C-alpha cells in the first residue's frame, strides 16, 4: 500500500440526499433543509462521512433544481440561507461533511445572465451562452436534446437559436468565454468560503463543445434528431478548463471533487482524476448502468446481464488503479432502485438477500462509496400504471416521443420501461416509517409515496439487527477498520457467470469477496492457493456456514473473508 496515496476522500463514504424527497419539516409536502437537519442523527448512525445534497439553489424547478436561477440563493421551498448555515454547522458538529451539487454546464433560462443574453445580439451577456444562426428555417444542426426534441431553441427577439443539451430551460453556458469561467470560479469560492467541503459537478465533461458543431448520428433513439455526445462530451478544451478551475479554486481548499462524466473513456477518466491532482478527485462513469440500454436508450426493453456488468466494473477497477480514482454507485437520483433492477424484490427473502449482496459486491471494490437515500433500506421501484403519477421531465418527454409521436411503444410497454428505469423511482419520498405518507410529510407530498412503504421503512429497520440498514452500517464500519477495503488492489477471479468473485490485495493480506447473483443455489470452489490460508469471515448475508473448500452459495449469498 502506497501511503502517499492516502486521502480522506478515498476513505470517506458519501450519502446522497435528494432534498425535495428526504424530509419535509413544515407540512408543505416538499422536503427541505430543516428536514435534513432533523435527520442528521439517522445519517450519523449509519456511519457515513459526507452528505451530497442535490441542488438546493434558487430554481424554477424545470428539472428539480438542476436548472439554477441564482447560484448564491437557496430555493424558497427548501428554506433560507440561515437554514443552510444551520445545517452546515450541525453537520460539522457531528463530523459530517457537506458536498454541494454544482451545475455549471448550464443555467436556468431564468438566470439573470440568460435574461440579459437573449435581449439583443450585442448585450454584454450575449456570449455567456451558445447562440447560432439557423440553417434556413431549421436549427443550426441536428442535435437532439438528451431530454428529447432539438437541442436548439429558436429565440424570436434576436432571430437566433441557443443550445440546450437538456431542457429548453437549461441553456448551456459558453465556457469559451473567460468571463463565464470567472463567474463560475467566483460562485464556487462563495460556497467554499462558507465552509462547504466540496462539489459534485454535474455533467462537467460537457463544458467544452466541438467548435464546428457537426451533425450527430441519427440512431432512432431521438426520432429524427442526432446524438450530440461525440461533440459535447470530453471536448477539446475540457482539461484546460478543469486545470484552470483547479488552479484558481479547487487547489486552494481541502475538499472533495466528484465529476459526473457521461460517455467518459478510460483515457479521459485517467486525466480527469490524475493522481497529481490537477483536475478532479474522482469521476462518475456510466458504463455499468447502461448494459440495458439499446436502440431507445434507457427505455429499451432489455434486461441487464451480470457478466457485462462484472466485466465493465473490472475494467474500471483495473484501469484507474493507482492512476486515478473511482466512485462506486448503483443508485442516484437518475437511476432506478438497484434491488428491483439488479437484485430481486419478488419475495421478502430475496429482496433482503439481494439488497445486501448488491451492497457487498459494490462497496468492497476500490473507490469512494456513494449510497443514495433509501438504498440502505432496500427501497424498491414503485411500479405505477399511470403516467400522471410521474413528474420527471425526462420520462414525460420520452413518453411523448416514444408513445405519442414515434409510436414505438404502446402505453403499457412504455410504462413498463418507466417503471423499471425511470428516474422518479429514486425520487419518491424517503420512507421513514409506516404512518401516513411514510412519515415524510404531514401534508400532501409533491410526488406520491411508493406504495411499498409499509413494508420498507427506516423505523422498522433501525430496531432490527438483521435489517438491510444494519448490513450497510456494518459494511461502512468494516471499511473504517480494514484499510485493505480502501486501498487493496482488485483482481477478478474466475467463476460461473452469475457469481462475481474477486479479491483485494495488499502485501501479506487478501480480502476475498464472493457474491451470487442467482436466486438458486450455486456451487463455488475456493482456488487452491487461497484455500490454504487462514481465514476470518468479516460479513455475510446468511448465518455462517463452515464449509470452506467447496461452498454451496444460497440465493443471492455474499461473503467477505479476510485471509
Ligand atoms: C445530470 C443530473 C441530472 C440532470 C442533468 C442535467 O445528469 O444528474 O439529474 O437532469 O445532469 O442537469
Ligand atoms: Ca417543506
In percent, how much strand structure appears in the residues? Answer: 15-25%
Structural category is: alpha/beta
| Mean pLDDT figure | 97
The N- and C-terminal alpha carbons lie at a distance of 17 Å
The radius of gyration computed from the alpha-carbon positions, rounded to a whole number of angstroms, is 23 Å
What are the key terms here?
binds alpha-D-glucopyranose, TIM Barrel, 22 strands, alpha/beta, 563 residues, 17% strand, binds calcium ion, 18 helices
Q: How is this structure best described in words?
A:
It contains 18 helices and 22 strands. The protein is α/β, with parallel strands linked by helices. Strands 13-12-11-5-2-1-15-14 form an eight-stranded parallel beta sheet. The protein has a five-stranded antiparallel beta sheet with strand order 16-17-18-22-20. The longest helix is centred in the first third of the chain and has 17 residues, at 178-194. The model has no long low-confidence stretch (mean pLDDT 97). Alpha-D-glucopyranose binds next to loops. Calcium ion (CA) is lined by residues 24-26, 28, 30, 32.
Offer a quick outline of the entry.
With 563 residues, this protein is an alpha/beta fold.
Helix-strand blueprint:
Blueprint: H1 8-11, E1 14-17, H2 33-38, H3 40-46, E2 50-53, E3 57-58, E4 70-74, H4 81-93, E5 97-102, E6 106-108, H5 112-117, E7 131-132, E8 152-155, E9 160-163, E10 170-172, H6 178-194, E11 198-201, H7 229-232, H8 238-248, E12 256-260, H9 266-272, E13 282-284, H10 306-320, E14 327-328, H11 338-341, H12 348-363, E15 368-372, H13 393-405, H14 411-421, H15 458-462, H16 468-481, H17 484-487, E16 489-492, E17 499-506, E18 509-516, E19 522-525, H18 528-531, E20 536-540, E21 550-553, E22 558-562
Parallel strand pairs: 1-2, 1-15, 2-5, 5-11, 11-12, 12-13, 14-15
Antiparallel strand pairs: 3-4, 6-10, 7-9, 8-9, 16-17, 17-18, 18-22, 19-21, 20-22
Helix pairs in contact: 12-16, 13-14
The structure holds alpha-D-glucopyranose and calcium ion.
Amino acid at each position: 500500500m502506497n501511503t502517499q496515496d492516502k486521502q480522506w476522500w478515498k476513505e470517506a463514504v458519501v450519502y446522497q440526499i435528494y432534498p425535495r424527497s428526504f424530509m419535509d419539516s413544515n407540512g408543505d409536502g416538499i422536503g427541505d433543509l430543516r428536514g435534513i437537519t432533523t435527520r442528521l442523527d439517522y445519517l450519523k448512525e449509519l456511519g457515513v462521512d459526507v452528505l451530497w445534497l442535490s441542488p438546493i439553489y434558487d430554481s424554477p424547478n424545470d428539472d428539480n433544481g438542476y436548472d439554477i436561477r441564482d447560484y448564491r440563493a437557496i430555493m424558497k421551498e427548501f428554506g433560507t440561507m440561515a437554514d443552510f448555515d444551520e445545517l452546515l454547522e450541525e453537520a460539522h458538529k457531528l463530523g459530517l461533511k457537506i458536498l454541494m451539487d454544482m451545475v455549471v454546464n448550464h443555467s436556468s433560462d431564468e438566470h439573470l445572465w440568460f435574461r440579459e443574453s437573449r435581449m439583443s445580439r450585442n448585450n454584454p451577456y450575449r456570449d455567456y451562452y451558445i447562440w447560432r444562426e439557423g440553417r434556413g428555417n431549421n436549427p443550426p444542426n441536428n442535435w437532439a436534446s438528451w431530454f428529447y426534441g432539438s437541442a436548439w431553441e429558436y429565440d424570436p427577439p434576436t432571430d437566433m437559436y441557443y443550445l440546450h443539451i437538456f431542457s429548453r430551460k437549461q441553456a448551456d453556458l459558453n465556457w469559451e468565454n473567460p468571463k463565464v469561467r470567472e463567474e463560475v470560479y467566483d460562485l464556487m469560492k462563495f460556497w467554499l468560503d462558507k465552509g462547504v467541503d466540496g462539489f459534485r459537478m454535474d455533467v462537467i465533461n460537457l463544458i467544452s463543445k466541438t467548435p464546428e458543431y457537426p451533425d450527430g448520428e441519427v440512431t432512432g433513439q431521438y426520432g429524427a434528431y442526432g446524438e450530440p455526445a461525440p461533440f459535447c462530451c470530453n471536448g477539446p478544451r475540457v482539461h484546460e478548463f478543469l486545470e484552470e478551475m483547479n488552479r484558481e479554486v479547487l487547489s486552494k481548499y481541502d475538499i472533495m471533487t466528484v465529476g459526473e462524466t457521461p460517455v467518459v473513456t478510460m483515457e479521459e477518466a485517467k486525466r480527469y482524476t490524475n493522481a497529481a491532482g490537477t483536475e478532479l478527485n474522482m469521476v462518475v462513469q456510466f458504463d455499468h448502468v447502461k448494459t440495458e440500454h439499446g436502440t431507445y436508450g434507457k427505455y429499451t426493453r432489455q434486461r441487464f446481464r451480470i457478466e457485462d456488468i462484472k466485466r465493465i466494473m473490472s475494467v474500471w477497477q483495473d484501469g484507474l488503479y493507482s492512476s486515478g480514482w473511482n466512485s462506486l454507485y448503483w443508485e442516484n437520483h437518475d437511476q432506478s432502485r438497484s434491488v428491483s433492477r439488479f437484485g430481486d424484490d419478488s419475495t421478502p427473502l430475496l429482496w433482503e438477500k439481494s439488497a445486501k449482496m448488491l451492497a457487498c459486491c459494490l462497496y468492497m471494490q476500490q473507490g469512494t462509496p456513494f449510497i443514495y437515500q433509501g438504498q440502505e433500506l432496500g427501497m424498491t421501484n414503485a411500479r405505477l400504471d399511470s403516467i400522471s403519477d410521474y413528474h420527471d421531465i425526462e420520462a414525460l418527454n420520452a413518453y411523448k416521443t416514444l408513445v405519442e409521436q414515434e409510436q414505438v411503444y404502446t402505453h403499457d410497454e412504455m410504462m413498463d420501461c418507466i417503471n423499471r428505469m425511470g428516474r422518479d423511482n429514486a425520487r419518491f419520498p424517503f420512507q421513514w416509517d409506516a404512518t401516513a405518507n411514510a412519515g415524510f410529510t404531514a401534508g400532501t407530498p409533491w410526488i406520491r409515496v411508493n406504495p411499498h412503504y409499509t413494508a420498507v421503512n427506516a423505523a422498522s429497520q433501525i430496531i432490527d439487527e438483521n435489517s438491510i440498514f444494519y448490513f450497510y452500517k456494518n459494511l461502512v464500519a468494516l471499511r473504517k477498520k480494514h484499510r485493505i477495503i480502501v486501498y487493496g488492489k482488485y483482481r477478478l477471479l474466475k467463476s460461473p457467470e452469475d457469481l462475481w468473485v474477486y479479491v483485494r490485495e495488499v502485501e501479506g493480506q487478501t480480502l476475498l469477496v464472493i457474491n451470487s447473483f442467482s436466486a438458486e443455489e450455486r456451487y463455488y470452489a475456493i482456488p487452491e492457493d487461497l484455500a490454504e490460508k487462514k481465514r476470518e469471515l468479516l460479513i455475510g448475508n446468511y448465518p455462517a456456514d463452515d464449509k470452506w473448500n467447496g461452498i454451496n452459495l444460497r440465493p443471492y449469498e455474499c461473503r467477505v473473508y479476510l485471509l
